[in-house]
Amino acid sequence: MNESIRPNGSRRAHQAMLARQRRRRRKRRLARVRRIRRLRALRSLRFWVRTACAGVVMLLLVFWAKFAFVYHIPEYAEQGPLVHAEWYITVKPWWFGPPVFDLASYAPNADDQGLTHPYAYLLNQLGKYAAILEAPQPVWVQTQP
Fold first, then answer.
1. Phi, psi values for residue 88, rounded to 5°
2. How far is residue 46's CA from residue 7's CA, in Å, rounded to a whole number?
3. Nearest 5°: CA angle at 95, between 92 and 98?
4. What are the pLDDT digits (tens) for 50-84?
5. pLDDT 10s digits, 80-108
6. Any idea what DSSP says for residue 8?
């Protein structure tokens, strides 16, 4: 064979050069594929994190809109399903009112000892929100041990 036809001198050297080029192209291609997969995983992770955050925000909005957390229930107000209740979550008959009720802040003070009907006073203090105590629709009731 004529050696002047081959640029690298021999067929074996030429094949080795082609193999190196193939390996280099393959490494670059695999690196590009890995980079694309990482970017796709990152985008997917960002999507699911945003979706989860939006779901949590929606749940909080629904809870604020339709449910109330009621705690510090005085003994004279423990009636019906609220007997021995420490706190409870109830469905509000209205939309978008206060989501938390501390009944101790609505109850009569200790210096109001002359008060004959503390339950009526408590309902009067609750005003339009008295339905959470008069006719509760409990979702969850935590009773005292």
1. -155, 160
2. 52
3. 70
4. 999 999 999 999 889 999 999 999 888 888 888 88
5. 888 888 999 999 988 888 899 999 888 87
6. S
- Per-residue buried b or exposed e for 120-133, using 16+ beta carbons within 10 Å of the residue's own CB: ebbbeebeebebbb
CA distance between the termini of the chain: 100
Tokens at 31, concatenated: 């690196």
Residue 58 tokens read as 């929606």
Burial (CB < 10 A; 0-12, 13-18, 19+), residue 92, is buried
Give the integer Cα–Cα distance in Å for 56 and 49.
Answer: 11
124 vs 118: CA distance, rounded Å? 10
Q: Is the pTM of this model over 0.85?
A: no
Question: Half-sphere exposure of 88 toward its Cβ, with a 13 Å CA cutoff?
Answer: 26
Nearest-angstrom CA–CA distance, 140 and 29? 57
Using alpha carbons only, give the angle 45, 50, 51 rounded to the nearest 5 degrees: 95
